[in-house]
Amino acid sequence: MSTNHASTPGITKRDRLEGLKRAWYKFSLNKMSIVGLVIVSLILILGVFQPLIAPYPEHAGAYVNFSAANQPPSSQYILGTDTVGRDILSRIFYAFRGALLMGLGVEAFIIPLGTIVGLIAGYWKEKWFSTALMRVTDIFLAVPPLVLALVVSALMRPTLFNSMMAVSIAWWPMYARMIYGMTSSMRNELFVKSAELLGASKFHILFREILPNCLGQIFTKMTLDMGWVILMGASLSFVGLGEQPPTPALGTMVSDGAKYLPDQWWIAIFPSIAIMVIILGFNFLGDGVKDMLTSEE
Amino acid sequence: MSENILEVNNLKKYFPITKGKEKGLSVKAVDDISFSIKRGETLALVGESGSGKSTTAYNVIGMYSATAGQIIFKDEPISNNIKERPLRLRKEIQMVFQDPGTTLNPRRIVKDILSLPLKIHKLVDKKDPVGQIVRLLEEVELPMEYLFKTPLALGGGERQMLAVARALSTNPDLIVLDEPTSALDVSIQAKIINMLLRLQKDYDLSYLFITLDLSLVRNFATRVAIMYLGKIAEIAPTEIFFSDPEHPYTKMLLSAIPVISEKEEEVKHAKVTPKGEIPSPVNVPKGCSFNTRCPLAFDRCFVEDPVMKEVASDHQVRCHLVEERRQS
Q1: What is the pTM of this model?
Q2: Which residues form the domain of B315?
Q3: Could you give the ipTM of this predicted complex?
């Protein structure tokens, strides 16, 4: 008997392919999510391969060419040049890198943190440490996130990493709250009770029984939040608390150009449009991810 | 070792009310009940919703800590504090819940669901872990193709079979079945019941079977206990329970079983018309708790709460009327 079970098939290639097909079908029901996917992939490609794609890759650094300063969009400089003669298009492409790093870095930090806090506080809901954790979360939530991020980053040296930390501090309570809510209702589900009755460890219950049921929501929120995290990063760099010049950051580019509005409008407007496109792209993608992950059964 | 695998003595479970008008009182979900289950037998615990049958089950399985009383499993008293219950007991007493849709994690595949109890209790067959799980599936008549499916892909009956397989995996002595078929189609009910009967024989299992459905009890149980408002009204072997019930409440329930033909109607006992609803377990009526609905209640019933009396071997009734009839 045991010999023929040894060759028990795992999830076959066909099964997996079918699962992917179904997921793609749900995702593609909304055409806007495909638009989102295209935008996000483009941003990713442009950011990563900036040196290969950008017309003037060297303009992303401390490059100065006053003879070409303040030029409007033309065939040579598609989006025009800034006050020291750098190609805005090339700089935007490079700034995508920082923006993506910002989004990914923040989420890589806050999702584990928020999840663990939420799981622990939600599962041991009536314990004192749960109340303590959630009150701390509430205090953070009570302050507008942008103000909190501004205050925190003003206390630190302005670097990309520090602005990531500042945004993370403002953002993790939202994840903690969400996971807390899901866990505290899910801990009364009978499948959790069954695992408890079998004598499963708390680690197993939290991370193997409860967490898998939260993943869909986490993933959806993650995609939807990406754009807003990037916007907050840009806001910090707008007031000079993010990535420092000469490295291009979307926020700094907008604030530099704002002084020359409306005459040299292209300096501020194009980076602003870039920010908008990023947010729209991630929102459309997030909606698609939501459709894909939440319409099961 | 005594022949009783489980003994419940004077078990009480009160839930204190902490909010609202009735603050300070408590819900007497289970109020002083005693019963026992012999090795290899099935005790059916029957009662209306709110009679405390599920609470009793949860006390046995260790989901609730009892307020008072004793639960003895295989001659060993089980601590009333569920946190002190050793892992060994979680292996020897298993449970199957009413709704298989919620007791199985929708995100975990069948293989993981079944291997969890094996891992916890260190029962994994190291040479052939997959085969071990496939054999469990075969035991509950599920195909091995289900190994990598989630419960979402299974039908209601199949999910319940999976829940049974999970309960069976640790090779328990006692399985508590909390209305295992009431969420299922009638056609599947029969299949599950037959499977449970077969497993009982094969594995020498004892069942504590909680149900609302008296017609199921007739084919499934060895003995029947009727619960009313947290107390047991009558315990009898199944045959006697259906042919010669003593308690007015039992008679009432039996005459409420629907029948189709006139012939069947004739065989039934004298009709006892049910009246009213089950009272709140917070304000239990004085005297016998059934006095608000009993058509035969007399003055003693409103003053004094009756106690369990043995009327025949293995047949106990808690009723003044039966007691007085015997004395006269």
Answers
A1: 0.83
A2: 4-327
A3: 0.83
